[in-house]
């Protein structure tokens, strides 16, 4: 019963966040009226939407026995992958913008890594998801071993 | 794995079928098949106790260690 209600709250929270995010994004993109800004919004919005879909599917199994399953582990790993891709794409964009003024490869790489590590919120997010994925994997292995204990 | 389950040998010695053992021990056929085929990851003492009681044997008659 408790799981069902938290499942409902989580689903509502995810849907509301997506709707609010999409609405604000559309309004901001309409006001700025620039293709580059729209592209930037899409660059941030698309991974966020993908993560929201994966989180919704995870929340859907909260009240069931399927919470610890290979499918959910795959979802958690996909969230980690999306976050990592977003971080790399961001660093590459910053690097591409900075390429014009720089000549040496070392300076260009410095820009890439400084953009990569300055996004510490994303890095911490990836680290937390990575640790959770490992814990989840351990739980699944234990569950599978439990199922094969006669 | 280095642990081998000799349940089929004991069943043959006692001239008992897997279905019969399943009924007497109170374990499903599916689980006994997993145990017999060596796919099981672990065996509970209570299960081993029941199997030994029904087959009138020692745990060593069912489980064997062979270096891989």
SS class of chain B: mainly alpha
Order of helices and strands of chain B: EHHHHHE
Look at the structure and give the mean pLDDT of chain B. 89
Q: Can you tell me the overall shape of chain A?
A: flat
**Helical proportion of chain A, percent range:** over 70%
Tell me how many strands of chain B there are: 2
Strand percentage of chain A, roughly? under 5%
Low-confidence stretches of chain A: none
Strand content of chain B: 5-15%
Largest interface: A-B, 5 and 12 residues
Largest sheet of chain B: 2 strands, antiparallel
Helical region count of chain A? 5
* SS-derived structural category of chain A: mainly alpha
The residue fraction in helices of chain B comes out at 55-70%
The SSE order of chain A reads: HHHHH
List keywords for this structure.
heterodimer; A: mainly alpha; 0% strand; B: mainly alpha; two-stranded antiparallel ribbon; 5 helices; 57% helix; 9% strand
Give structural notes.
- The complex is a heterodimer of chains A (150) and B (68).
- With 150 residues, chain A is mainly α.
- Helix content of chain A is 85%, strand content 0%.
- Chain A contains five helices and no strands.
- The longest helix of chain A is centred in the first third of the chain and has 31 residues.
- Chain A is flat, with a radius of gyration of 20 Å.
- With 68 residues, chain B is mainly alpha-helical.
- Chain B contains five helices and two strands; from the N terminus they run E-H-H-H-H-H-E.
- A two-stranded antiparallel sheet of chain B has the order 1-2.
- The longest helix of chain B is centred in the C-terminal third of the chain and has 11 residues.
- The radius of gyration of chain B is 11 Å and the shape is globular.
- Chains A and B meet through loops of A and helix 3 of B.
């Amino acid at each position: 019963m408790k799981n069902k209600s938290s499942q409902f709250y989580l689903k509502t929270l995810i849907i509301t966040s997506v709707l609010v995010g999409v609405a604000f994004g559309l309004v901001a993109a309409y006001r700025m009226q620039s293709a580059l800004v729209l592209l930037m919004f899409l660059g941030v919005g698309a991974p966020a939407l993908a993560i929201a879909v994966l989180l919704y599917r995870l929340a859907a199994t909260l009240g069931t026995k399927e919470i610890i399953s290979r499918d959910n582990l795959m979802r958690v790993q996909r969230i980690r992958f999306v976050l990592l891709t977003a971080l790399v794409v961001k660093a590459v964009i910053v690097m591409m913008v900075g390429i014009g003024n720089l000549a040496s490869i070392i300076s260009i790489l410095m820009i890439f890594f400084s953009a990569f590590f300055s996004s510490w919120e994303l890095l911490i997010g990836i680290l937390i998801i990575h640790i959770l994925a490992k814990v989840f994997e351990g739980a699944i292995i234990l569950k599978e071993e439990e199922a094969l204990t006669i | 794995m280095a642990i081998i389950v000799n349940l089929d040998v004991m069943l043959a010695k006692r001239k008992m079928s897997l279905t019969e053992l399943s009924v007497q021990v109170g374990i499903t056929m599916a689980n006994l098949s997993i145990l017999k085929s060596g796919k099981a990851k672990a065996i509970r003492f209570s299960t081993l106790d029941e199997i030994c009681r029904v087959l009138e044997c020692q745990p060593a008659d069912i489980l064997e260690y062979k270096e891989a």
